[in-house]
Design goal:
This protein has six domains: 30 residues; 214 residues, Jelly Rolls; 157 residues, Tachylectin-2, Chain A; 127 residues, 5 Propeller (Tachylectin-2, Chain A), CATH 2.115.10; 158 residues, Jelly Rolls (Sandwich); 67 residues, Immunoglobulin-like (Sandwich), CATH 2.60.40. It is built from two helices and 58 strands.
Length: 828
């Protein structure tokens, strides 16, 4: 018995020693040791970031020579442009434990990564990681896809184990991600701002930590469209830390040091001689048709087709810029994103319509929603008065193109006439452009889809497909129908017809032959103003359109942006129902504080400088008298350096108006059609003694030109001479000049695209409880579900807890201030 007792005792002792050793090993394995730390501060040369643990620095890949640091969550953050920025860096992977690791970083995103232009591929890319998938996979990574699904992936025993959050990654917010992998407990844990949002168990015995470099801002594989990376991050990444062992997650609701600002840093375009400044456009990357120009809540709003990830077409969103005056624009959050099954390929063009009955007095968005099989028409309503948050219940409202029409079917426009609501949609039937007609039934709250046509081209010469149709009642009561045909004679250009609306909502034009919005031949083949959006305010009909740059993709990649919008124009119809165009009267505000030139009643034969007015942002207006001299030619020279200049002129003998950029060095965007020479006859021939007024706005690569406050066109010219800044008025032959006025501008637009935050009021959620910042006890909170139904209304002084794993629209109102947030409640 004694011997047996001794053996038992030895076993117990040995077991105790094993247990002690195991505990000691676990403690050692889980005690965190910082292996690598990338604060993301740029070095003195503004090109590299460093691992402060190893002391080594690494180049930031970026298409622009200047990389961008902005105020971050901790110190400075690195701004990733969405199509070219990433860092490939070595780290001390050999020092990582195969039993426990922890990784953390701060991140804020403007958009989810593109991955696939059409949105079909939902593969993941890295926010940061060194994951290598193969027969024996290794490494780890924070990952995200184009639907916003995000998480942490790690290789255990050579196989990838995934841990994904159940809710999408929040956009326009600072997010602290923290992940731990513990072989002892057999769990991967993922934290978002200190809250546990996912936990996954595994059965393996060792972490395959890998030896590859850490890559920040994209995955190792390159997904490209031309020169554009599709798998890069658009936003901020900051304070990446990698630990051997288990580092504690931060406290719930961890707050960054600096408020989020996703503005495009001024340094990105500081020396840009091509990028417009006082024209509306997003802060960077790609834009196209503006739509939904509307005045609401004391602001002008313009929505537009946007790809925030790069200056190329792909998986389109609705961007959003706002203005107090139609001059100074500020970009705010993306309004409509392709996040539903019916719009996953893109939220394409449409309109904004506001009516007391149909939309309950709020602007509603109607747009083309593309999936991988068809286009449908859907509707979105705002959840706040800033038109920032939108909801999409009960869609689609027109599920498919009408029978009997070709599949091309997009770009809805809603209007009301004779007490009824109609929608027209661009289409094609039997090889000719057309627009379909859909009538709203107020009793069933549905739209017809029976194949009726609002109007169709009388000839293929006027287009094989009509896009971006719109309808506006003009100053004389007539209706102006506008569309941008594809396949028209002369290529893409914007046409209009004038007529009446019949009792059944269809169109009865005064003539089946359309007229051109832009002057004569100045806008062939997709040049000039296209797809204008219109609004009516204070008795004015105001229009803004896209003016494409027509550059190739390589140049757009170097520039970092593509396309711009025209200046606002005022439109009326004359007694012959011709379109009359002049600059929006509010543009005179640009002149405040500007250097100016003014002279009246003088004879000119040669050139005259308009100094001190010069540069790449200016306005010139001149009134010239027709002399009868066959050699008379007069106008302005801009972007001039020595003998080289862009000439804007009129020659009465041939009745020809010209923009001539043939002799200036430039980025060539028109070689196949204009090659720098834009010429058109004027609709009227001027005789001796009559006057002609030329009114020009130049803003770097765009010129908006108005003639006699009647005809207009916009043209893109890209001079490359940085010294070409002189501006002159000139005449060949003697010309009596009645007046010359000019102004040099310095004003520009803002590009801030962080969350709207009125006077620092804020809402956030932690542990399913709502918290409020910078409000008084009188403030009230309104909580809606995503269908727009009011869930709760109460004073902020009372505790508010919400069910977990839900999304709410929360509006905070304190006196005359308000702020709206999309709130995602926590994972238990």
């Amino acid at each position: 018995m004694k011997r047996l007792y001794l053996k038992i005792k030895q076993v117990v002792v040995l077991a105790g020693m094993f247990l002690f050793a195991s505990i000691a090993f676990v403690t050692m394995a889980q005690s965190p040791v910082l292996i690598s730390h990338f604060p993301m501060d740029l070095d003195g040369g503004k090109t590299r970031v460093s691992d402060v643990v190893s002391g080594k620095s690494y180049i930031v890949n970026n298409v622009k020579p200047v990389r961008e640091n902005v105020p971050g969550a901790v110190g400075n953050a690195l701004r990733f442009d969405g199509y070219s920025t990433y860092v490939n860096a070595q780290f001390n992977a050999e020092n990582l434990s195969n039993q426990a690791i922890s990784v953390s970083l701060w991140c804020a995103m403007e958009n989810y990564p593109m991955i696939d232009i059409n949105g079909a591929n939902t593969d993941f890319t890295y926010i940061a990681g060194n994951l290598k998938e193969s027969s024996t996979s290794s490494g780890f990574a924070f990952v995200i896809n184009n639907r916003g699904t995000y998480g942490f992936e790690v290789c255990i025993d050579g196989a990838v184990v995934t841990c994904y959050a159940t809710m999408p990654f929040p956009l326009y917010e600072w997010v602290h991600l923290h992940a731990t992998v513990d072989v002892v407990t057999k769990y991967i844990r993922l934290y978002n701002n200190g809250r546990l949002v996912a936990r996954v168990g595994f059965t393996g015995n060792a972490i395959s930590v890998g030896t590859r470099p850490i890559i920040i801002g994209k995955s190792y594989n390159d997904i490209l469209s031309g020169r554009f990376y599709l798998n890069t991050i658009n936003g901020l990444i900051d304070d990446l830390k990698i630990y051997s062992g288990i580092a504690d997650a931060p406290p719930t609701g961890i707050q960054p040091e600096n408020p989020l600002d996703l503005s495009i840093p001024k340094s990105r375009f500081a020396d840009e001689i091509q990028r417009p400044v006082f024209h509306g456009m997003p802060g960077a990357n790609w834009t196209n048709e503006p739509h939904g120009l509307v005045y609401w809540n004391d602001k002008y709003h313009c929505f537009f087709q946007k790809n925030g990830n790069g200056p190329y077409w792909g998986r389109i969103n609705w961007g959003h810029i706002v203005s107090d005056d139609l001059i100074h624009w500020k970009e705010v959050e993306t309004a409509i994103r392709p996040d539903k099954s019916y719009d996953i390929k893109g939220a394409w063009s449409g309109c904004v319509f506001n009516d007391a009955e149909l939309t309950e007095g709020k602007p509603h968005v109607f747009y083309s929603a593309a999936d991988f099989e068809k286009v449908s028409i859907v509707e979105a309503s705002p959840s706040d008065d800033d038109l920032i948050e939108w909801q999409k219940p009960n869609n689609p409202i027109v599920p498919v193109h009408p029978q009997g029409l070709d599949e091309d079917f997009r770009d809805p426009h809603v209007y009301k006439v004779n007490g009824k609501y109609y929608m027209i949609v661009g289409g094609r039937k039997e090889g000719r452009g057309c627009v379909t007609l859909h009538e709203y039934n107020p009793y069933t709250k549905t739209w017809s889809n029976d194949g009726r046509l609002f109007y169709q081209a009388s000839s293929k010469n006027f287009g094989e497909f009509w896009e971006m149709p719109s309808l506006t009642q003009m100053n004389n009561g007539k209706w102006m129908f506008i569309t941008t045909p594809l396949g028209a004679q002369g290529g893409v250009q914007t046409f209009y017809w004038v007529g009446d609306i019949n009792e059944d909502g269809t169109f009865n034009p005064l003539s089946n032959t359309p007229k051109k919005v832009e002057l004569g031949n100045m806008a062939l083949d997709g040049f000039g103003l296209l797809s204008p959006s219109q609004m009516q305010k204070d008795g004015k009909n105001i229009a803004i359109g896209i003016v494409p740059d027509k550059l190739n993709g390589d140049i757009n990649a170097d520039l970092g942006w593509a396309h711009t919008f025209s200046l606002p124009r005022e439109w009326t119809l004359d007694t012959n129902n011709n379109l009359v165009q002049k600059p929006y009267s509010g543009l005179t505000a640009l002149r405040a504080g500007a250097k100016s030139f003014s002279e009246t009643n003088f004879n000119l034969n040669g050139n005259k400088s308009l100094a001190p007015v010069n540069g790449r942002m200016a306005e010139m207006e001149g009134t010239f008298k027709i002399s009868g001299d066959a050699n008379q030619k007069f106008g302005f020279l801009v972007r001039k350096n020595g003998a080289q200049a862009v000439s804007i002129n009129y020659q009465p003998a041939t009745n020809t108006f010209t923009v001539d950029a043939q002799n200036v060095p430039r980025l060539v965007n028109d070689s196949w059609i204009y090659n720098g020479l834009y010429q058109s006859a004027l609709p009227k021939t001027f005789i001796t003694g009559e006057t002609l007024r030329i009114h020009v706005f130049i803003d770097h690569s765009i010129m908006d030109i108005f003639i006699n406050d009647t005809w207009a066109f916009s043209v893109r010219v890209f001079p490359t001479d940085t010294q070409a800044n002189d501006i002159e008025v000139f005449s060949e032959g003697s010309t009596e000049v009645l007046s010359i006025n000019a102004w040099a501008f310095t004003q520009g637009n803002e590009t801030a695209i962080s969350k709207i935050n009125n006077n620092e009021m804020n809402i956030y959620c932690a542990n399913n409880r709502l918290y409020f910042e910078n409000v008084t006890d009188r403030a009230d909170v309104w909580i809606y579900n995503l269908s727009g139904q009011l869930f709760l209304k109460q004073n902020v002084s009372k505790n508010i807890r919400l069910p977990e794993n839900q999304i709410y629209i929360v509006r905070l109102i304190d006196g005359n201030k308000s702020v709206t947030r999309k709130i995602i409640t926590t994972y238990s």
